[in-house]
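Bench log, entry 3. Co-assembly request; chain sequences pasted below exactly as received.
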Amino acid sequence: MEIKIVKKVLEAHEKLAEEIARLLARNGVYAINIIGSPGSGKTLLLERTFEAAAADLKPGVIEGDIATTADAERLQRFGVPVVQINTGPFGGDCHLAPNLIRAALEELPLDDLKTVFVENVGNLVCPAEFNIGENEKVVVLSLAEGEDKPLKYPLAFREANAVVVNKTDLLPHLDVDLDVLRRNVAAVNAGLAVFEASAKTCDGVGSWVEYVRGRLVGR
Amino acid sequence: MHELPVVSSLVTQLQAEVERLGVAGRVTVVHLKLGALTTFVAEAMTFYFDALTKGTALESARLEVEEVPVLGRCRGCGEKLTFEVLPFVCAVCGSPELEITSGRELLIDSLEVRDETG
Ligand SMILES: Nc1nc2c(ncn2[C@@H]2O[C@H](COP(=O)(O)OP(=O)(O)O)[C@@H](O)[C@H]2O)c(=O)[nH]1
Ligand SMILES: [Mg+2]
Ligand SMILES: [Zn+2]
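Structure output for the full assembly:
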């Protein structure tokens, strides 16, 4: 005998993500879920973003780097509230699940914030899979990872609204072909906003910051 | 490796489902639909499923994963599309403005259950 079920496995996740989205909307907070491999420059990009615009963006941060609190400390220098997430019973250490995000949001002064940046756990696979009630996902991809990454991890690039191609200062030292990378990004998601930047030299960081500012207009 | 928490969710959900349906211990096959765009690997899911159901009311059940293709519709010309390779552009008019309608599924589709007598 066959019994038809047709139920989503991640239904509980999705409900929680919707609840988080409502909580953020009620507080007028815009949440950006930052996804990228370990070392792609997520934290340094956030540091540069806050250097340039912490006063306007009024950011809070949820840090998903499980092992240490080093990233949280780097960001606290800007007077920004940072919550470091600990590994929960669900989700292990490969992505941030919505239950962890909801708990972290309770520790942030949402009334005083305009944005929340979530630095997801470093990897291009699982964080792409799980909505956490964010307004948008952004991929930070460093040039050193190679031009084929959009093709190998299409879901992350499909789910994102923007990609920051970071470490452009390294271009002279790498065999990476930036044109091929651009083409691969477009093949996976032609609608993606692409920012080429160096979080080290700050080159190109300005357009990224303007993009984020633009997200807050009229909110 | 990120299949583990997902399969763990699946097993918890299935346990509630078989209780509700009164078919605990009689499920032989669980049919799961998995979108081709998801990052979950079918073999890893069945591996964890067997491990997590050992000694439970789902011990005799096998997980069968059916892949759901990536389907979409072109916002430009309205063509219905199936994507097997990149790029994600309309095969007819070349437009990248697409609505992806399937490929992200992770669904419990159905259960096969042994008759009470058998
Ligand atoms: N050359 C160069 N190094 C960078 C750039 N952005 C980040 N890094 C370095 O890359 C390493 C990892 O950066 P981090 O922000 O911690 O990456 P995360 O793991 O993604 O948060 C650090 O040593 C950074 O100083 C960049 O644009 N250019
Ligand atoms: Mg970091
Ligand atoms: Zn078309």
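The pocket of zinc ion (ligand 3) is lined by residues B 74, 76-77, 79, 90, 92-93, 95 (CB under 6 Å). Chain A has one domain: 2-215.
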